[in-house]
Design goal:
- This protein is an all-alpha fold.
- It has one domain.
- It has 5 helices and no strands.
- Helix 1 packs across helix 3, helix 1 packs parallel to helix 5 and helix 3 packs across helix 5.
């Protein structure tokens, strides 16, 4: 779930970047380049924290970054879905929906309704 949420966020960031001709020269290839890109451009200011946390969580999920203790603590969180999908990914979905003028992105079929 965590890795899928991160990659959805990554593709939403890429879709917004691709929609702006001004970003064509700055397109990111690696995760590090994409993170730097997000921090360099104010258009992405509203999602910086959510994207950073999703990336960090995906590293824990995919590679046990931080060791098994960090992994166990993170995945033992009773509100993991709320935090990852509704919280961080929800923030990025709502932002992308606004940026791309596609309201369906904010609440895809089967997703938990957006709060606030």
């Amino acid at each position: 779930m965590v890795a899928i949420a991160f990659y959805e966020a990554l593709h939403l960031v890429e879709a917004v970047a691709a929609s702006d001709p001004g970003f064509q020269q700055d397109r990111a290839v690696t995760h590090m380049e994409r993170r730097e890109f997000i921090y360099q451009h104010d258009r992405f200011k509203l999602i910086r924290l959510a994207y950073k946390e999703l990336h960090r969580a995906s590293l824990i999920a995919r590679y046990m970054e931080g060791g098994s203790r960090a992994t166990d603590h993170f995945f033992a969180a009773p509100n993991l879905h709320q935090l990852v999908v509704v919280g961080w990914l929800g923030t990025i979905r709502r932002w992308a929906a606004s940026e791309l003028k596609v309201p369906e992105i904010a609440n895809p079929a089967g997703a938990a309704p957006a709060k606030g």
